[in-house]
Amino acid sequence: MSRKSPADAQLVAAVRRLLRYGLPVTPASADAVLLDLRGVVARAVDPTDTASLTTALDGTLRGLLARFPDVRYASAARALFGLSPAEPGQNLTVRRDLAAEQAGHEAHHFRKRVEPKLIEKIAWELLTDADRFTRSPMIAPRLAPVGHRQLVQADPFAWEVAEHEEHLARLWSAIYAARAELLAVERLISLRADRMEILRTAVTAAWRWATARAEAISYTTAFVPEAGVSADEVVALAGWTPALTAAQASRLVEAATGGASREQFVAALHGEPGLGNAWTEGFFSPPASPEITPDEQNGQLP
Prior knowledge:
By secondary structure, the chain is mainly alpha-helical. The chain folds into two domains: 130 residues, no CATH class; 129 residues. 65% of the residues lie in helices and 0% in strands. The chain is built from 15 helices and no strands. Helix 5 runs antiparallel to helix 6, helix 6 crosses helix 7 and helix 9 packs across helix 12. The longest helix has 35 residues. The chain is globular.
């Protein structure tokens, strides 16, 4: 890992202190430097409330540990912070012993040589997550409970505001629906589920993604000054998808436009198996290895 700035060093220290308590994160165990991360603030229901920020930090860490990039040490990292295979309430000594066992190291060696690198890696992942939110072109609007009817006044300005909110709601509904199906595909692949089940889910993901892209095109076309981003940048928020040519992506959108159901979407593409294969087979291709900097390569976990 490359040399860290002072801010990065503070983050590493905060993650190290958090390790004493493990997960779930509590207001007492979370330093301000962690709660102030852009990815945490963006996920908080109320970014001005410490409890809400704490919940967002807990969820962020669980997600990062679930997708820990070093496969060999993923189970050890989770155990170290109190997630399965560890059990709730275990103290740090017990968690360290279990993590060392999961990593295949002697306990003393694990604590002195491996644990510091795992902490640095988690801090680095938190910084990377925050950077993604910093560079994100759009962030989903937060919703709050409403106890009364929201009438729209008979006024052109009020109509414009309501229409904008309508577009936003449809857009984010489609983005999250696509994300759910893309995650479902990856989960089934990880579970080594039946290939036909994976393919069916991948087709559903294609339909949801195409619907989301159609909504993104509609939104960015109608609200270009407000959006300031392209449809591709918006739909990318749903998650990774197999590589498609511009023509293939347009064809998928065409099949999904107009509120097409999944059945209508599949029927529209029935005579184009090549397009379907380009999408579905992309999920079965080996994932690219994450880039490792020379500093990280020299300092890889032992």
